[in-house]
Amino acid sequence: MVDRGNKNKKLEVRIGGLKLKNPVMTASGTAGYGAELAEFFDLSKLGAIVLKGISLVPWQGNPAPRITETRCGMINSIGLQNVGLDAFLREKLPFARQWDVPVIANILGTSATEYTRLASALEDAGVEGIELNVSCPNVKEGGIAFGLNLKSFAGLIRAVRKKVKNPVLIVKLSPGAPSIEEFSRAAEAEGADAISLINSIPAMAIDVNTRRPLIKNVIGGLSGPAIKPIAVRMVYQASKSVKTIPIIGMGGIITGEDAVEFMLAGATAVAVGTATFMDPMAALKVVEGIGSWMERQGIKSASHITGAMLSDIRRK
Amino acid sequence: MGFFAADGPLPEANPGQFFMLGVKNCGDDPLLKRPFCYFRKRGNTLEILYRIVGKMTSIMKGLRPGDEVEILGPLGNVYPVEEVFFECKKTEKTEKTKKTKNPLVIAGGTGIASVYPLLEGLPGRAFLFYGGRSKKDVLLSRELRAVSKKFIPATDDGSLGFKGTSVDAARDFLNGRAPDDFVLYACGPNGMLKAASALGVQGYIASEEKMACGIGVCLGCAVRTKDGYKRACKDGPVFKTGELLFD
Ligand SMILES: Cc1cc2nc3c(=O)[nH]c(=O)nc-3n(C[C@H](O)[C@H](O)[C@H](O)COP(=O)(O)OP(=O)(O)OC[C@H]3O[C@@H](n4cnc5c(N)ncnc54)[C@H](O)[C@@H]3O)c2cc1C
Ligand SMILES: Cc1cc2nc3c(=O)[nH]c(=O)nc-3n(C[C@H](O)[C@H](O)[C@H](O)COP(=O)(O)O)c2cc1C
Ligand code: FES
C-alpha cells in the first residue's frame, strides 16, 4: 500500500488499496495528461489524477467543431483523440508521475484483448490505478458496446482482472447501462476495486437559424451541471447495489457542496470534469469546499460523509 | 461591436495571444468562459474588441463600470516577427544573407483585434488589408491608417476602398510583386484563412476555433494540420502557413 504523507488526515479516503489525501480527482479527458493543469496548481494537492483515455494505437479524434455549450452544460465529441499507448508510456506517463499523487490511467479498446494488453502494459509501468472506460459515447467501434451489454461487460472485467494485480481497477459505467444496479453488482462480482460514474450522456443541439447541428458529429456527450441530478441518482443506485467496493461519483461537480452531495448519495470519492474548463483551479476549490463543509457540519472524517444522506424528509 | 475594458492587475500580453473571459454572478449559464484576443492595453486598462453574437457577448454589453469579470490569460502563442527584421538564408555556397520582409496583414471581422497589437508593434511597416460587408463594418480606420504603412480597406459592396474581400484586395496588391518580399499575418473566419493561405505568401495564420477550456486540456479546439489535429488554444492560435489544412 502506498502511504503518502498527509498532515490533514481528515480528508483521507480509500479506494481499494489506494489511500487518497482527499476525495477529489480529475475526471478523465478533462485534465489532459497533467502537464497543462500543473501550470496552474500543485497537482499533489489532489486525491488522484485521472488522465485522458488512451488506446493501443493513437486515435485522431473527430473533426471540428467538437464542442458546443448548452444551457448549464456542454456537448463534446472529441472522439478519444489520444497519443496511443507507446507515446503515453514514453512521454506522458513519466511527466504525470513526477507529482506526489496517485496516477490513474483511463483506457479504451475495441476488444477485450486490447483492454488487457493496455492494462498489462500500464501495470508494468507502475500506474496506481486503471479506469476501464466502457462508456464513451463518442466512438462507435469501442467501449460503449461493453457498457451496454451485461455479458460482455462482465467478461471484459474478468479478463482484465485476471491480467492485473497491483493497480486499483476502476470500471467506469455508462449512464446508458440498462440497469445501473445489475452492472454495478457484476463489476464487483468480477473483481473491480471501484466503480466510477457517470460518463457524459449522449445528446445533441441544433442551431435553429442555420438548421445545422452545432457539432460536426451531430451527437456528442453532455456534461456539466445539467447532468448532475441524474449522476447523483445513479451514484445512489450504484452504491445501494454493491456490497463493499467504493463508488467514484462525477457529473457536474463545481463546488465542494456538489461533491458532498455525491458523497451523501454514496460516493467515496469524486471527480471534477467540465468545471476545470470553467476554471483551471476548480478541482482544488472542490477540495477546499469539502473541507469547509465538514468544518461547518462538525464532521471529523471525509469517509463519514459517504452514504450519510438522512432519508427521513423533515419539513419546517 | 463594442469595446470592453477591464482594470486591475493585468499581466503582459503579446500580439496573437488571447484571454478567456467570464462574468460573475451568472450562475452556470453561460457556463464556460469565452476566448477574446488581446487587443490593446491603455495604462492599466485591458481592452477587448468584440462583436455581439450570443449569450456572453450580450451580457458583456450590459456590464457597468465596477462589475466584476474573470480573466484567464494571456494564453496561446504569439505572432513571430523575426522575418520582419531579417531573414537568415543559408545555402550550401553562400553565407548568411539578411533580408527584411514586409508584413502583409489580412484581417476579417473581429480578426482585426488579433492583428491590431501586431500592427502597433511594427509601426509604419505593415501593408494591411481589412474589411467587411460594408463601410460601417470597417472599424478603427483612423487608428489603422496611423499604425500601418498602407491600409487598404475592402468591402463587399464597394462602399469603402477595394470592392471585394480583403484577400481579394491583397491578391490584387501582390500582382506584379514578389511574394518572397512579404510575410503574411492573417486572422479571421476559416474561409478567409483558407483563401489567404492560398496567396502564396509564407507567414502566419491565427485560428479562432471554438474553445471550451483555453488551456489545452479538453481537445475541443482541434484544428486540422499536416501533422494531425492540434489544439488552437495551446499549440496555436498562431500557425505557420501550410501547417493548417482547410476543408
Ligand atoms: C482565440 C480566439 C480569439 C477570439 N477573439 C475574439 C475577439 O477579439 N473579438 C470577438 O468579438 N470575438 C473573438 N472570438 C470569438 C468569440 O470567442 C465568440 O464570438 C464568443 O465566444 C461568442 O460568445 P457568445 O456567448 O456571445 O456566443 P454564443 O451564444 O456562445 O454563440 C453565438 C454564435 O456564435 C458562434 N460562435 C461561438 N464561438 C465562436 C467562435 N470561436 N468562432 C466562430 N463562431 C463562434 C456560435 O456557434 C453561435 O452561432 C475569438 C475566438 C477565439 C477562439
Ligand atoms: C471534453 C471531454 C472529454 C472526455 N474524455 C473522456 C475520456 O477520455 N475518458 C473517459 O472515461 N471520460 C471522458 N470524459 C467524461 C468525463 O470524465 C466525465 O465522466 C463527464 O464529463 C462527467 O463529469 P463532468 O460533468 O464533471 O464533466 C470526457 C468529458 C469531456 C467533457
Ligand atoms: S480549448 Fe480546450 S484544448 Fe483548446
Structural notes for this entry:
The complex is a heterodimer of chains A (316) and B (247). With 316 residues, chain A is an alpha/beta fold. Chain A has helices at 35-38, 84-96, 112-125, 144-148, 150-163, 180-189, 228-241, 256-264, 274-278, 282-297, and strands spanning 13-15, 18-20, 24-26, 49-50, 67-70, 73-76, 103-107, 129-133, 168-172, 194-197, 201-204, 206-207, 212-213, 219-223, 247-250, 269-272. Chain A starts with 12 loop residues before the first strand and ends in a 19-residue tail after the last helix. With 247 residues, chain B is of the alpha/beta class. Helix content of chain B is 19%, strand content 32%. Chain B has six helices and 17 strands. Chain B has helices at 55-61, 82-85, 111-121, 141-147, 166-174, 190-197; strands at 2-7, 18-23, 34-37, 40-42, 45-50, 69-75, 88-89, 97-98, 102-108, 127-132, 150-155, 162-163, 182-187, 203-206, 222-225, 228-231, 238-240. In chain B, strands 12-11-10-9-13-14-17 form a seven-stranded mixed sheet, with helices on both faces. A three-stranded antiparallel sheet of chain B has the order 1-5-4. In chain B, strands 3-2-6 form a three-stranded antiparallel sheet. Chains A and B meet through strand 5, strand 6 and helix 9 of A and strand 15 of B. The structure holds flavin-adenine dinucleotide, flavin mononucleotide and FE2/S2 (inorganic) cluster. Flavin mononucleotide binds next to helix 9 of chain A.
Largest inter-chain contact set:
A-B, 35 and 29 residues
Going by CATH, what is the homologous superfamily of the largest domain in chain B? Nucleotide-binding domain of ferredoxin-NADP reductase (FNR) module
Helix amount of chain B, in percent? 10-25%
**Low-confidence segments of chain B:** none
The CATH superfamily of chain A is identified as Aldolase class I
Q: Let me know the average pLDDT of chain B.
A: 89
Task: Quickly count the helices of chain A.
Answer: 10
